[in-house]
Structure formats: structure tokens, C-alpha cells
Amino acid sequence: MGERLKKLNLDKKLLLFTAIGVFLGIALFSGTAGALKATDTGEFCSSCHIMESAYESFTSSNHASLYCNDCHVPNNSLVEKLPYKAKAGMSHMYMNTIGANQIPKVLHAKASSQEVINNNCIMCHEPGLQNINHDSKGNCIDCHRTVPHNGGDYRPTEWFEPKQFHFADLNKKGKE
To answer: Residue 39: which residues within 8 A CB-CB, separation 6 or more?
Structure first.
């Protein structure tokens, strides 16, 4: 009978440790997923003073419904996104603390960032790109550098007025 109690006690401990492990796993996963999502937002990015003007111009652009990392980190897979985001985050933490005196007055995307941004532009706008000739430049940023930062909103004022904006009729061009 003594062995039976020991085995029952051992089973209870195993069950308890399993339940605690599952709970901690779920909590860790949820916390990590929440942290990853929170660090994608413009509010998080603008918490560093160097990004305040970029965030202000972004919030008034036609891309304001997106997260910063919809454009600025790879989005085709978590395998690419997580290491890129971790490296960029470590770099930003360094630059905003120890390397603060090295921050330039004007921020420009590095070549690796430009490639990611360009790929994300294409991923979102690919259906429209099939209708327009884009042979003039090497990548999206060459022509659309100010979208969505620095007032790169190319919509006319009529766009914002109900029933006032009409797309141009391309067939009329040659007839006038």
C-alpha cells in the first residue's frame, strides 16, 4: 500500500509540473506574440525621439493604416522577419543609448533596408504594377522616396471630398 501511495503522489507531481509547464508555455507564447505585435506599431517606433518627425509625416499619409514594420522588415516569413527585426532592434537600442552622438540629422535607409522596403512595396502593390510601366528606375524608392514620409501623399484635395474626385479617362487624352 505504501508503494501505491508513492506512485499516486508521483503521478500528481508529474501532472502538476505538466500543467505548470503548459501554462508557462502558453503565457510565454502569448507574451512574445503580443510583444512582437506591439513593436511593429508606429507608436512604439515614435517612442525614440529621432523617429518623431517620421511618425508625424507617416500618420498623415495614405499608408497610415499600416504598421511601420509592414514596410520596414521582411514580411514573407517569420524565419526572415524575426532575425531582421532583432538585429534592427539591437542596432536602434545601441544608437539611442551608447551611440547617440552618431545619429545623423537626416535618417536614410541603408541598402539592406531599401531592399526590404522595395520588396514590401512590390508585395502590396503588385496587382497595380502590372498596369503601369516602371522601367525608368531601379526600385520603388527611387521615384516614391517621400511615400509615406515627408508629405508623400499624392492624392489631390478633391480625393477627400465626397463625390468630387474622378479618375482621369485615359481614352480622352488623344481626342482633345
So the answer is: 69, 85, 89
